Amino acid sequence: MSAADISSVREVNFDGLVGPTHNYSGLAVGNVASMSHGGLVSNPKEGALQGLLKMKSLMDAGYAQGVLPPQQRPDIGALRDLGFSGSNSEVLARAALEAPQLLRAVCSASSMWTANAGTITPSVDAPDSRVHFTPANLQSSFHRYLEPQTTGRVLQAIFRDEQHFAHHPVLPATPAFSDEGAANHTRLCGEYGEPGVHLFVYGRQTFGDVRSAQREPKRYPARQTLEASQAVARQHGLTEAQTVFAQQHPDAIDAGVFHNDVIAVGNGPVLLYHEMAFLDEEGTLDELRAKMAIPLIPVRVPLEAVSMEDAVASYLFNSQLLSNPDGTMTLVVPGECQEREAVWRTIQDYLLAGNNPISEVVVKDVKQSMRNGGGPACLRLRVVLTDAEREALTGRVLLTDALYDDLTAWVNRHYRDRLAPDDLADPQLAEESLAALDELTRLLKVGPVYPFQLG
User: I need a surface site. Which of 58, 325, 334, 394 has the fewest CB within 10 A?
Assistant: First the structure.
């Protein structure tokens, strides 16, 4: 790839739209924010508009921004598979009476956190020079296990051109291959168009002689397995020289760090991480340094500066780290970072004043997402694309002023501004959601991707 070609390669952040059934049901074990806000009244309209406003502000700042549609919710088909029968309204009513947690699960709007949608390898790293996609199986929780089929259809609808894009099957939905997608994956590189090294972070190992000796969390489950990360790397044709597999610190998982992107974020050559991110911190950094073509720039935040409680409550490390043309970086943090004195002081005195490329911090209000345990980094799936690959996208999914206006108007037409857990049994909510999604697929020009559209 020539210097001109390399410079034209860009990272596109594809954010998930917050769905019409966004609610607080406290479904995610190990996600402290989700569990602590369970049962509160949510505001789906505000959540969707907050997400869109974040996308728009980043687009206005010059960053490439895409949009991914939400899932079909409530997933009444899943309730029927579990033995509930009758009309849609009867299924919802019976589920609300007999299994309210199941009803809450099939109404979850968790697909807004597209960092979990899948794992992506850019064409510059792949042996066939195509962009590779593997949807995450998300088997560790029922409400997210419902997502991969639709996620796969959405990704294949948008990244349809087989000359440029390759799609792989979801890994077997078993504990041994538990896969949480790009929330546990970071690509480190120089320019986006230059070869990179892929850091896969796992919480536990299922097979092998070391299992009995490995450290695992004691309070919360480790979601990502080494075997899943290795399988995705094999699917994408990544070699040993291109990959680093590191174990997440089990004490961090027990503190509420259910994904690595709650404790570390990387972009370009920079890895911003907490002291407690990796079980073998030095070994991880040494292997990255040995395999990267350019010097790694580690930005380490010590425990004495930011406690685990503050890290989890503020989601400092679940911020978006964005590369700028002049070599500097911008960190997009949630508003909660300003509410924790130690975190805000660390941002000002340690990150911005430190010897690293982070030169700007931008604060965004994504409270509707944060209360369910998802910050700015959870809301986006990063896809590195060449000019030709961007031109090959199907649909109207790259954000523009016109698309932002259309999506804002769509949200205002279809979304409620108040949703309590008891409202999830309302059959009118299901009808409203289907009408909204049907219109959305036409607006985005992605074709039929939802079960109700496929017949």
Answer: 325
Q: Is 168 a catalytic residue?
A: no
pLDDT digits (tens, 9 = 90+) for 261-270: 999 999 999 9
Question: Which one of 164, 198, 378, 414 is the catalytic residue?
Answer: 378
Put the strands of the sheet holding 10-16 in their side by side order.
Answer: 64-68, 10-16, 380-385
Amino acid, single-letter form, for residue 153: R
The catalytically annotated residue of 259, 274, 337, 389 is 259
- Averaged pLDDT of the chain: 93
If you count DSSP H runs as helices and E runs as strands, how many of each does the chain have, helices first? 19, 15
Active site residue 414: no
Residue 368: both structure tokens together:
């509707």
pTM: 0.94
Bridge pairing between strands 264-267 and 270-274: antiparallel
Which residue bears the tokens 């899948």? 118
Q: State phi, psi for 244 to the nearest 5 degrees.
A: -130, 130
- Considering the segment(s) 15-73+108-454 as one domain, its CATH architecture is 5-stranded Propeller (3.75)
Residue 130: how many CB atoms within 10 A of its CB? 21
132 is known as an active-site residue: no
d(CA 150, CA 169): 12
Sequence spans of domains, the chain? 15-73+108-454
User: How many whole angstroms separate alpha carbon 357 and alpha carbon 139?
Assistant: 37
Instruction: Give 182-222 as a 3 state SS string.
Output: HHHEEEECCCCCCCCEEEEEECECCCCHHHHHCCCCCCCCC
Q: Which of the following is catalytic: 46, 147, 180, 336? A: 180
Residue 235: how many other CB atoms lie within 10 Å: 18
CB 201 within 8 A of CB 243: no
Q: Which amino acid is at 228?
A: A
